[in-house]
Amino acid sequence: MTTHNDDVDWDRWPVADYLAENYREVHPSDAAIIAHHSAFYRRFPPGGIDRSVEFGAGPNLYPLILASAACRRIDAVEAGAGSVAYLQEQICHRLDASWLPFHALCRELNPDVPATLAGALAPVNVVHADVRTLPPGFYELASMHFVAEGATEDFAEFADFCRTFVRTVTPGGHLVAAFMENLPTHRIGPASHWPGCPVNPTTVTEVFTPLTRDLDVTHIDTDRTLPDYGDSGMVLLTGVAEPV
């Protein structure tokens, strides 16, 4: 049977295992994404974006750090209770020191990132919600990392998530995203399985071409320093939203 997003209890997402496997150090793929996204955010003056959204934020802080260079308000929208609790803890109470090297690299590549990690996270507003309920056209910029292809095994549902992602911004709004390439159903931690929808630069381009202009899709090779989830690298995207 094909697993769809609503078949999954996202409150059970293994936040601690996910962070331990992926974000306790800056991996080469992280550095490549940060370099790619920093070039994107350098297009905008500090505070030039009024409202942005991290679409399915999870517990990953570096997309929020990157956005802080340009965005006055960043809504980190996440459905899973564990990820929401982690984000709230980080922003309101205690920052994990493991994020400091990520912040340092983000700031090195874009000096408009605030000088401290706490300052970079100050614009973030954590929203506990399903991204599919977001109002259309509310944001000027939308960012998404490893969400649409990790939420379902069904390609049609993947494409629906991508359309919803584009619809969150006003026409002419800006988009930046990263996808795991050819991600299958996979394990995180010792005993949990999660859906995956295999996509690649061609399929990502086919989905986003009718939804965007100025579309740019690039590829990062497999990062051997990360766990083997069965993927074959990452796909990075920038673009401008057309009316959907």
From TrEMBL:
<protein>
    <submittedName>
        <fullName>NNMT/PNMT/TEMT family class I SAM-dependent methyltransferase</fullName>
    </submittedName>
</protein>
<keyword id="KW-0949">S-adenosyl-L-methionine</keyword>
<dbReference type="GO" id="GO:0008168">
    <property type="term" value="F:methyltransferase activity"/>
</dbReference>
<dbReference type="InterPro" id="IPR029063">
    <property type="entry name" value="SAM-dependent_MTases_sf"/>
</dbReference>
<dbReference type="GO" id="GO:0032259">
    <property type="term" value="P:methylation"/>
</dbReference>
<keyword id="KW-0808">Transferase</keyword>
<keyword id="KW-0489">Methyltransferase</keyword>
<dbReference type="InterPro" id="IPR000940">
    <property type="entry name" value="NNMT_TEMT_trans"/>
</dbReference>
